[in-house]
Amino acid sequence: MYRKKIDIREFKKVYLVHNYMAGKQNFFAGLQNNVMHLVDQCTEVYGPAQFEYSRVHTFREVQEVARKICDERADWVIVAGGDGTLRALAEVLIEQDYMPYISVYPSGTVNLVAKELAQKPDVGHWLLRVSKGLTTPVWLGKANDRIFLTVAGIGVDSMVVDSVTPQEKKYLSTLAYVRQSGKVAGNEMLLHPWKYKFEVMIDNDGQWRHASSVIVTKSRYYAGRFSLVNGGSLSNPTLYVCLFKKNRCVDFLRYTALIAADMLSLDKTVEICKAKEVQIRCNVKNFAAELDGDSVATSPLSISLLPTPLNFIS
């Protein structure tokens, strides 16, 4: 991994994009206070002419601010939010072909990017790390016309994500996913095997592999602190494709236990492949897929890596 060092004080235009509705911020005033502390620190360093604070409530508003960032050719964008907020921003940057430096202050429901980049919500720790100006390349994935930073999934996990309402995600955070996992298991697998089937082609090799669920990851972490594969990294331009072959409730319970123990690779009914491109089709039309924890795509899926990474200051 190549890391370069820059002087953040030389930036001419800096944005802090704060997703006020992200994750646990609705319950912990300390996170809100931390963000405002970051605002004060940035204003002190850059002054009001060079620093702009944008408070947003939806991904659509994130993308509106992102277009303004591109128009003004901002040098550095700090995102106070989760992986979904980062994804919404990145989609516009890619669309506009403009790549400022990015940093993330973790305050969302899912913060896998921040976790892998060792960005903690402690303001003093966060400021100390970014002030060093060390950059980390983060390779982006693309599923159909949507961007993802960490993971794309289709199958049981995406059905769970698709079942969580915005209100549940807002007020229950990760508990909403646990609750919906139980519902999906009871409704879809308890009395009969999982009926959905997927076919996967790796790097256009002409071979369609069968699976009951598929997870494509490019991150070290999955669903919090867990790891699906050895070698996964945001800074590694490689996709790892996990093909879950079995379709009974007991199989998915076993998969869940192995993921929790970081031992998924020991299960012979899980095939893990490295890839640059992945094609996925389903036995039903428009099966919901999840990208970075949000249901924003449907089958069939065409997944690949973008040729240029974003540079994060971390």
Protein architecture, described:
The chain has about 325 residues and is of the alpha+beta class. The chain has two domains: about 10-135, 3-Layer(aba) Sandwich (Rossmann fold), CATH 3.40.50; about 145-305, Tumour Suppressor Smad4 (Sandwich), CATH 2.60.200. It is built from nine helices and 18 strands. It has helices at about 30-45, 60-70, 85-95, 110-115, 125-130, 155-165, 165-170, 175-190, 250-260; strands at about 15-20, 50-55, 75-80, 100-105, 135-140, 140-145, 145-150, 150-155, 200, 210, 215, 240-245, 270-275, 275-280, 290, 295-300, 300-305, 310-314. The strands form four sheets. It has a six-stranded antiparallel sheet. Strand 6 and strand 7 (about 145-150) form a beta hairpin. Helix 2 packs across helix 3 (about 85-95), helix 6 crosses helix 8 (about 175-190) and helix 7 (about 165-170) crosses helix 8 (about 175-190). The mean pLDDT is about 90.
Give the helix/strand layout.
Elements: E1 14-19, H1 29-46, E2 51-56, H2 59-72, E3 76-81, H3 83-96, E4 101-106, H4 112-116, H5 123-131, E5 135-138, E6 141-143, E7 146-148, E8 151-154, H6 156-163, H7 166-172, H8 174-188, E9 198-202, E10 209-211, E11 213-217, E12 239-244, H9 249-260, E13 270-275, E14 277-282, E15 288-291, E16 294-298, E17 301-305, E18 310-313
Parallel strand pairs: 1-2, 1-3, 3-4
Antiparallel strand pairs: 5-18, 6-7, 6-17, 8-11, 8-15, 9-10, 9-14, 11-12, 12-13, 14-17, 15-16
